[in-house]
Automatic annotation (TrEMBL):
Cleaved signal peptide residues: none
Highest taxon, organism lineage: Bacteria
SUPFAM superfamilies in alphabetical order: HAD-like
Gene Ontology molecular-function annotations: hydrolase activity
Protein name as catalogued: HAD-superfamily hydrolase, subfamily IA, variant 1
InterPro entries in the record: HAD-like_hydrolase, HAD-like_sf, HAD_sf, PGP-like_dom2
The keyword Signal is assigned to this record: no
Entry keyword set: Hydrolase, Magnesium
Length: 234
């Protein structure tokens, strides 16, 4: 018997909540670090440098594969001890291209659980990133029919959540944000007055790591380790 009655609104994240995503970026980064083969910086130091470049690039160009590609090239240009040729830049870009070539790999239990939840609740996809990229992933995933609406934001912060609440006329006491990122899915949703379900994913992007906030009085924060367990809550 679900813990919460029918008629809830469930805002559900996409990358690393519905399907694998960051593992492909991690593989690309591993290839990049190996290709750079820096003689004085450790792999961990190169990764920290790339993280810093990514933060800069996101501020200027947002999220998505083109932004990530820019970050790889920029980091390579900053760290390469040898002259950077166009051939080398193209090799660096090729690591990013491997990500776009990946098939959508749904996480365990996602399709079956969405089918069950959509019969009892209103589901809204709530993701961030490049609009075309995210829309394409949703189309290829086969999951679009389960969602009553789709929200693709440039950033997921409290004002964004408040705007979604207003646009869909949501009642915060029956509305939830569900996702794997403390930084984007959980903390800002709680700040906007929503309940939240944190779905742990061992490969969550390092730039999405943060300490989970304590749920304000009257709000719920529930932690789960699998998507399928949502059906026991809702």
């Amino acid at each position: 018997m679900p813990r919460f009655p029918a008629g809830q609104t469930l805002l559900i994240d996409a990358d690393d909540t519905l399907w694998e995503n960051n593992i492909y970026f991690e593989r690309a980064i591993a290839g990049f670090i190996s290709f750079l083969d820096h003689k004085t910086h450790s792999n961990a130091e190169v990764r920290r440098a790339l993280n810093a470049v990514e933060r800069e690039t996101i501020l200027a160009h947002g999220y998505g594969l083109p932004s990530f590609t820019r970050s790889l090239v920029e980091c390579f240009e900053r760290l390469s001890p040898a002259p950077v040729t166009e051939d080398k830049r193209e090799q660096v870009r090729s690591f990013a291209r491997t990500i776009s070539e990946q098939e959508i790999e749904l996480l365990p239990g996602v399709k079956e659980t969405l089918a069950e939840l959509s019969g009892r609740h209103q589901l809204i996809l709530m993701t961030k990133g490049d609009h075309a990229e995210q829309a394409d992933k949703l189309a290829r995933s086969g999951l679009a029919p389960y969602f009553a609406a789709v929200e693709i934001a440039a950033e997921k912060d409290p004002p964004t959540y408040r705007a979604v609440i207003a646009r869909h006329e949501l009642a915060p006491h029956t509305s939830w944000m569900i996702g794997n990122s403390p930084k984007s899915d959980i903390n800002p949703a709680l700040a906007a007055g929503l309940h939240a379900v944190f779905l742990f994913h061992k490969d969550t992007w390092v730039l999405e790591h943060a300490t989970l906030d304590v749920a304000p009085e009257g709000q719920h924060l529930i932690e789960l380790d699998s998507f399928a367990k949502l059906a026991t809550l809702f």
